[in-house]
């Protein structure tokens, strides 16, 4: 393992790109391998056994590269299968739930934190446990938003889009009525909805699990003197289903900063 080794990042689909973007924004010289398990998205409506099986296949694939860290860029995977990944791999493993929980626990002013996430993440109680670790008095109100991931995967994340705004109100009005001052986007697909959510609820403090995760990764790489200093960063993207569809979607979000080819691979 060296400074120029890859950071391996994975998610069920396009959502983990919000973490890649956050990493690239704060550490532009990093070499990154991304895997999006687009053949199996969404993870968040599946059983623990199935999610764990997919996650282990994702990590096994990433581990075929020279890695210096693995980033579980998926709250669902992090909530359900992180312990298993840590057991099996002798690599620094970073997630999204703990960094976002810490930030929300520290930043809430009235102690009422809303968490929106997939069914699997909400049912796991991972956010309740992690937020309580940092702020035992915080009240956590979680809501599963199963329609968000398919809408984001289908490009419905623009401000003014009546479909996404109607669905967002349906999920978020009850949280706002309960008085939350802080909202954790507990799914890496959801930062793509930031504009929509900020437009609807300008007073809410929004915490992105993707941004929080990238900051934690940077602190750790700095502490272990593993921040890359190469001039040309390499980025490679792999998906388990249609590469062209992924690329089109990814470019809407990442623009030119995608910075690498997208290749379809089979993990079977
Ligand atoms: N982006 C993922 C997350 O952070 C998973 C969404 C899904 O596949 O359901 O939870």
The main sheet comes to: 6 strands, parallel
SS elements, strand count: 10
Oligomer: single chain
Structural class, please?
alpha/beta
The share of residues in helices is 40-55%
Mean pLDDT: 94
- The strand line-up of the biggest sheet is 4-3-1-2-9-10
Q: Enumerate how many helices there are, as a single number.
A: 11
Q: Strand-and-helix sequence, N→C?
A: EHEHEHEHEHHEHHEHEHEHE
Strand content: 15-25%
**Could you say which overall geometry the principal axes of the C-alpha atoms support?**
globular
The parts where pLDDT drops under 50 for at least 5 residues are none
Give the N-to-C terminal Cα separation. Answer: 28 Å
Can you describe what's shown?
Helix content is 45%, strand content 18%. Helix 1 crosses helix 10 and helix 4 crosses helix 6. With 268 residues, the chain is of the alpha/beta class. It is globular and about 50 Å long. The strands form two sheets. A six-stranded parallel β-sheet has the order 4-3-1-2-9-10, sandwiched between helices. It has eleven helices and ten strands. Strand 3, helix 3 and strand 4 form a beta-alpha-beta unit. It starts with 5 loop residues before the first strand and ends with a strand. Bound molecules: D-glutamic acid (DGL). D-glutamic acid binds next to helix 3.
């Amino acid at each position: 393992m060296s400074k120029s080794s890859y950071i391996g990042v994975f998610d069920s689909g396009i959502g983990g790109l919000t973490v890649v973007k956050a990493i690239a924004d704060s550490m532009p010289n990093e070499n990154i391998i991304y895997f999006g398990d687009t053949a199996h998205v969404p993870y968040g409506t599946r059983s623990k056994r199935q999610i764990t099986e997919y996650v282990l296949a994702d990590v096994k694939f990433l581990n075929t590269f020279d890695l210096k860290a693995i980033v579980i860029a998926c709250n669902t995977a992090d909530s359900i299968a992180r312990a298993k990944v840590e057991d099996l791999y002798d690599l620094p493993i970073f997630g999204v739930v703990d960094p976002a929980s810490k930030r929300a626990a520290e930043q809430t002013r009235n102690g009422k934190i809303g968490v929106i996430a997939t069914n699997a993440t909400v049912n796991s109680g991972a956010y309740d446990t992690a937020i309580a670790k940092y702020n035992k008095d915080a009240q956590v109100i979680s809501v599963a938003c199963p329609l968000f991931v398919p809408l984001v995967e289908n490009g419905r994340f623009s401000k003014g889009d009546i479909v996404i705004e109607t669905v967002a109100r349906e999920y978020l009005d009850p949280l706002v009525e309960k008085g939350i001052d802080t909202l954790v986007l507990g799914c890496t697909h959801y930062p793509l909805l930031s504009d929509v959510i900020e437009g609807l609820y300008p007073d809410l403090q929004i915490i992105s699990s993707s941004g929080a995760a990238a900051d934690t990764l940077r602190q750790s790489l700095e502490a272990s003197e593993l921040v890359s200093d190469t001039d040309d960063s390499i980025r490679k993207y792999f998906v388990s289903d249609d590469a062209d569809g992924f690329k089109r979607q990814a470019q809407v979000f990442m623009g030119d900063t995608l910075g690498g080819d997208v290749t379809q691979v089979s993990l079977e």
